[in-house]
Design a protein that fits this description.
- This protein is 16% helix and 45% strand.
- By secondary structure, the chain is an alpha+beta fold.
- It has 2 domains: 127 residues, Diaminopimelate Epimerase, Chain A, domain 1, CATH 3.10.310.10; 124 residues, Diaminopimelate Epimerase, Chain A, domain 1 (Roll), CATH 3.10.310.10.
- The chain has a 17-stranded mixed β-sheet that branches.
- It starts with a strand and ends with a strand.
Length: 263
C-alpha cells in the first residue's frame, strides 16, 4: 500500500507527518522504525499521525524513531498543527489532543506556530547523575538539565546516553539537556533525546524545560526566553511568573511531500 506523507522540520527536529483523519491506517512499531531510519527509510526523529478526535479538532499521535508511542513533542506539536491546518482539519487557531491532554495553538505566520504547553510538573533540585550536577522537570516529557560553561564542543552523545540510561535515577529513561546561559533572557541548548537515542538538532519540550528551570534557579530573569538550538534556529518560550501558563513558539516548515510503500 502506498501512503502519502509530508516531511516537516520544527527547528531541525524532523518528522514524517501523515493524515489519518479517516482512521484507516495502522502502522506497526517495526514499520514506523523502518520509515524513520535514515539512509534506508525516509529518515526522521519521529512520526506523527493526525487522527480524528471526539472532543477537539484532531488527535496528534507521536511515535519516536524507535517506533514506540512517545510522550509530548513540542516541535512535533507545532508541525502537527501546521499540517492539520493545511489539510483542512482545523483553523489557524486550534485545540487538539495529545497523550490525553488538551493543547491550544495558533498559526502566527506562514511557517510559525505558537503552542500552549501543559504546566510543568515534578521539579527536582540539584542531584548528582553520572558525575554531573543535574536538575529535572517534566514538561510533557521528562527532562534532565545540566549546565555547562560552553556547549559548542561538548560530547553530548556520550554524556547524554550515560545519564539517559541511569535506571536508578530515571526508571523510564529521560531526555538530557545541556545548557549554556548566554544572557538574562537567552540560552543555548543541546539535547540527547530518549527514543531517538542520539542528539537531535532541536527539542521543543527540552527548550521549555531549560527555560523554566533556568528561571526557577535565577540563572535568567526574563519571562520570555530565546533558546538557540543545535540547528541554529531559535525557539521562544514565554510564561507567567508562576510558570503555569507556558507557550512555545517557533518554525514549522514543510520540507517535501511524497508517497511511500508500507506493508
Amino acid at each position: 500500500m502506498n501512503v502519502t506523507f509530508t516531511k516537516m522540520s520544527g527547528a531541525g527536529n524532523d518528522f514524517i507527518v501523515i493524515d489519518n483523519m479517516n482512521a484507516s491506517l495502522r502502522l506497526s512499531e517495526t514499520g514506523i522504525r523502518a520509515l524513520c531510519t535514515r539512509r534506508t527509510g525516509i529518515g526522521a526523529d519521529g512520526l506523527i499521525m493526525i487522527e480524528p478526535s471526539d472532543r477537539y479538532d484532531f488527535v496528534m499521535k507521536y511515535y519516536n524513531a524507535d517506533g514506540r508511542l512517545g510522550s509530548m513533542c513540542g516541535n512535533g506539536g507545532r508541525c502537527a498543527v501546521h499540517f492539520a491546518w493545511s489539510v483542512g482539519a482545523c483553523t489557524r487557531h486550534t485545540t487538539f489532543e495529545a497523550n490525553g491532554n488538551r493543547y491550544e495553538a495558533v498559526i502566527t505566520g506562514d511557517e510559525t506556530v505558537r503552542l500552549k504547553m501543559t504546566a510543568p510538573t515534578d521539579f527536582r533540585d540539584r542531584f548528582d547523575a553520572n558525575g554531573y550536577s543535574c536538575y529535572y522537570i517534566n514538561t510533557g516529557s521528562p527532562h534532565a538539565i545540566v549546565y555547562l560553561d560552553s556547549t559548542d564542543t561538548f560530547d553530548v552523545d556520550t554524556s547524554g546516553r550515560a545519564i539517559r540510561s541511569n535506571r536508578e535515577l530515571f526508571p523510564d529513561g529521560t531526555n538530557v539537556n545541556f545548557i549554556e546561559i548566554t544572557s538574562s533572557r537567552s540560552l543555548k541548548l543541546r539535547t540527547f533525546e530518549r527514543g531517538v537515542e542520539a542528539e537531535t538538532l532541536a527539542c521543543g519540550t527540552g527548550a521549555v524545560a531549560s527555560a523554566l528551570v533556568s528561571y526557577r534557579l535565577g540563572k535568567i530573569t526574563a519571562e520570555r526566553v530565546d533558546v538557540t538550538v543545535h540547528s541554529g534556529d531559535i525557539l521562544t518560550i514565554d510564561f507567567s511568573r508562576d510558570m503555569n501558563e507556558v507557550f512555545l513558539s517557533g518554525p514549522a516548515r514543510v520540507v517535501y511531500t511524497g508517497t511511500v510503500a508500507v506493508n
